[in-house]
């Protein structure tokens, strides 16, 4: 059955119409109806996508457990990767769809969160103290789930909820029902995770939640929200994390566009768009971007460990994606994938799940994060009869807070402190620095894919960059520069394998004199090797931008750290020669160091929070890798 009227008639008569998806994309005046068989596959690479006619080919329902394909931790709940193979695709005018869809109240019983407000607040406290406070990351998303039982036919309830969302919710990227036979998903996701069209890869980090109070938009409350340090830093942190992903799937990294205000019926969010050109298979793009930091945290690999530790249960499809794969008229692959949030899952027996999470950062409060989970669930819960509906304004135009000049100015000011390297259009054929062009750099990744962004910056300076995980064996011979990269964890640990490996790496580099740059965790380990004590900060520097003195120049840079080295003087004599230190004048924290053949920085020069980051790298690298002399060029063919 392919027509919406026939499909609804079958459901009303108690017949399962077979798998289908009904969705509206943002701004569209029509719904799309996909029908076809559903298969289950094991890996993202197995999602069916073969060359053929233009259009949608497969709609994949990707669970969170697929994160294990990246080698990341998760509680495996067995949720299957289901693929609806599109055999028929119809378009239905929005007005016609609203006339056909059931206009009735969804009835549910036994509604309750699996974790009470008090229990969730205790979890927030634990994550802030045990994870962010101990250097395990900058932010983490912990979820809870509303459970209920739908009264009446589950599919009719899902279609009725879809109609309510189409009428009452606004600002959604996709509003949809997907029925595979084993489950029905209905939701209004605000967030594009990743899309690929005409070779353009786009991601859409959304963070910060403004809870609307009452029927009238509150301009002053919104302006306070836009100026709130917690909300500002939360968006910057997820922006950095998605730039890490774009560094992998876009050939020259991502360009930052925005920010914008995404207004929905019960709340509003701040968001950026990221764009870059790429040539990867779209299934590889999906794999390399599992999953959005807005629903996991950062750094990503350790965020997955933290989620498994504190949630102790599977996520099902929450924070996974719907992924529509196909081809365009020129035969190029296409992808459109919203995040599975603000989404309800209904079983064939009527069991209902609505998962929702909050992003925990160093400024978080337990009460605020509890309230955020209620606000985020409000739209889909209202559609399911589990909460108050948004005000019905009929045909009246909706007042947009984003149109207010003061709001536009406040949004624009978000970019003032950010690095132009990521905001401006970059020429892929820029020449680089003469002394660095063609020289080889190895970045050792300590479990923070900031290394991908760092690789793009080093590449822009002219270096040819290779990245290697900390646990991979291999020689450093043949590299002009070795970078000990960032990552989570306690640099003072004597038995943690990663710290042992980094100490061995840096010890060897210091002994041989091979030019070395150490960043964040690498810097901390290097400082320890040079004899400096390491301390845990009283308050973590996670997603924090500061102006700091660096060897005679004040620089604005971004920190993601909980530990720091300290020193009592600006110079230190070591077994590897004298070392110059850039220290905090208050507590002696070592922001940077440099000696003969090595340098280290506690901050992230590659971060969007480091407007002076590229200048810092330029100065350090031109000192570490001086331009070869003319006689060296003649004997090495131009490579030092």
What does it look like?
This is anthranilate synthase. Pfam families: Chorismate_bind (PF00425), GATase (PF00117). It comes from Micromonospora zamorensis. InterPro entries: ADC_synthase, Anth_synth_I-like, Chorismate_C, Class_I_gatase-like, GATASE, TrpG/PapA_dom. It is built from 16 helices and 30 strands. With 640 residues, the chain is of the alpha+beta class. The strands form four sheets. Strands 1, 2, 6, 7, 8, 9, 10, 16, 19 and 20 form a ten-stranded antiparallel beta sheet that branches. Strands 3, 4, 5, 11, 12, 13, 14, 15, 17 and 18 form a ten-stranded antiparallel beta sheet that branches. An eight-stranded mixed beta sheet has the order 22-21-23-24-30-29-28-27, with helices on both faces. The longest helix has 21 residues. The C terminus is likely disordered.
Concise overview:
The protein has 16 helices and 30 strands. With 640 residues, the chain is α+β, with helices and mostly antiparallel strands. Strands 1, 2, 6, 7, 8, 9, 10, 16, 19 and 20 form a 10-stranded antiparallel β-sheet that branches. Strands 3, 4, 5, 11, 12, 13, 14, 15, 17 and 18 form a 10-stranded antiparallel β-sheet that branches. An 8-stranded mixed β-sheet has the order 22-21-23-24-30-29-28-27, sandwiched between helices.
Features:
single chain; 640 residues; alpha+beta; ten-stranded antiparallel β-sheet; 16 helices; 28% helix; globular; disordered C terminus; anthranilate synthase; ADC_synthase
Question: How is this fold's topology laid out?
Answer:
Blueprint: H1 4-12, E1 20-25, E2 30-35, E3 38-41, E4 55-62, E5 81-85, E6 88-93, H2 94-100, E7 107-113, H3 117-132, E8 139-151, H4 154-168, E9 174-179, E10 184-189, E11 192-197, E12 200-203, E13 206-211, H5 219-226, H6 229-249, E14 255-263, E15 267-277, H7 282-288, E16 297-298, H8 300-311, E17 321-327, E18 333-338, E19 343-346, E20 351-360, H9 366-383, H10 405-413, H11 420-423, E21 440-445, H12 450-460, E22 464-469, E23 481-484, H13 497-512, E24 516-519, H14 521-529, E25 534-550, E26 553-565, E27 571-574, E28 577-583, E29 590-595, E30 598-601, H15 613-624, H16 630-636
Parallel strand pairs: 21-22, 21-23, 23-24, 24-30
Antiparallel strand pairs: 1-2, 1-9, 2-6, 3-5, 4-5, 4-17, 7-8, 8-16, 8-20, 9-10, 10-19, 11-12, 11-18, 12-15, 13-15, 14-15, 17-18, 19-20, 25-26, 27-28, 28-29, 29-30
Helix pairs in contact: 3-9, 4-9, 5-10, 6-12, 13-14
């Amino acid at each position: 059955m392919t027509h919406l009227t026939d499909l609804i008639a079958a459901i009303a008569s108690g017949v399962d119409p077979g798998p289908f998806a009904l969705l509206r994309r943002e701004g569209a005046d029509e719904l799309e109806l996909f029908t076809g068989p559903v298969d289950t596959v094991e890996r993202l690479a197995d999602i069916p996508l073969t060359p053929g006619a233009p259009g949608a080919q497969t709609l994949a329902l990707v669970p969170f457990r697929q994160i294990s394909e990246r080698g990341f931790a998760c509680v495996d709940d067995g949720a299957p990767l289901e693929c609806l193979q599109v055999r028929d695709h119809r378009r239905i005018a929005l007005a016609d769809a609203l006339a056909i869809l059931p206009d009735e109240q969804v009835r549910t019983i036994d509604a309750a969160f699996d974790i009470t407000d008090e229990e969730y607040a205790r979890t927030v406290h634990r994550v802030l103290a045990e994870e962010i406070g101990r250097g395990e990351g900058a932010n983490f998303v912990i979820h809870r789930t509303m459970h209920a039982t739908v009264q009446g036919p589950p599919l009719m309830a899902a279609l009725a909820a879809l109609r309510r969302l189409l009428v009452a919710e606004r600002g959604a990227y996709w509003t949809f029902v997907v029925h595979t036979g084993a489950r029905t998903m209905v939701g209004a996701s605000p967030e594009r995770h990743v899309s690929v069209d005409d070779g353009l890869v786009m991601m859409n980090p959304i963070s910060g939640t403004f809870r609307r109070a009452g029927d009238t938009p509150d301009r002053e409350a919104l302006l306070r929200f836009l100026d709130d340090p917690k909300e500002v830093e939360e968006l910057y942190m997820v922006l950095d994390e998605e730039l890490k992903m774009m560094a992998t799937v876009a050939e020259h990294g991502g360009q930052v566009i925005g920010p914008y205000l995404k207004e929905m019926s019960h709340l509003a969010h701040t968001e950026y768009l990221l764009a870059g050109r790429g040539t990867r298979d779209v299934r590889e793009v999906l794999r390399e971007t599992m999953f959005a930091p807005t629903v996991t945290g950062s750094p990503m690999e350790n965020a997955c460990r933290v989620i498994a530790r504190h949630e102790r249960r599977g996520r099902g499809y929450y924070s996974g994606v719907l992924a529509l794969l196909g081809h365009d008229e020129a035969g190029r692959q296409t992808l459109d994938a919203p995040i599975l949030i603000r989404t309800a899952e209904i079983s064939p027996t009527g069991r209902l799940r609505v998962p929702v999470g909050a992003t925990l950062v160093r400024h978080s409060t337990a009460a605020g994060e509890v309230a955020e989970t209620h606000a985020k669930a409000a739209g889909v819960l209202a559609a399911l009869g589990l909460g108050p509906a948004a005000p019905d304004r009929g045909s009246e135009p909706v007042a947009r807070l984003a149109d207010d000049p003061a709001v536009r100015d406040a949004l624009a000011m978000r970019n003032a402190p950010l690095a132009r390297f990521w905001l401006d259009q970059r020429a892929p054929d820029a020449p680089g620095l003469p002394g660095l062009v063609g020289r080889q750099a190895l970045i050792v990744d300590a479990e923070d894919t900031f290394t991908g962004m760092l690789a793009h910056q080093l590449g822009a300076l002219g270096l040819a960059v290779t990245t290697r995980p900390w646990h991979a064996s291999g020689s450093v011979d043949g590299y002009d520069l070795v970078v000990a990269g960032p990552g989570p964890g306690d640099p003072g640990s004597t038995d943690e394998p990663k710290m042992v490996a980094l100490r061995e790496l840096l010890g060897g580099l210091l002994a041989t004199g091979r030019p070395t740059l150490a960043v964040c965790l690498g810097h901390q380990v290097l400082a320890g090797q040079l004899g400096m004590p390491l301390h845990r900060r009283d308050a973590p520097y996670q997603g924090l931008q500061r102006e700091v003195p660096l060897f005679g120049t004040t620089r604005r840079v971004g920190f993601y750290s909980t530990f720091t080295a300290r020193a009592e003087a600006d110079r230190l004599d070591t077994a590897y020669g004298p070392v110059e230190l850039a220290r905090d004048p208050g507590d002696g924290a070592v922001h940077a160091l440099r000696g003969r053949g090595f340098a280290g920085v506690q901050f992230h020069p590659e971060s969007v929070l480091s407007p002076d980051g590229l200048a810092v790298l330029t100065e350090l690298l031109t000192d570490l890798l001086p331009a070869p002399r003319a006689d060296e060029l003649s004997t090495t063919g131009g490579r030092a």
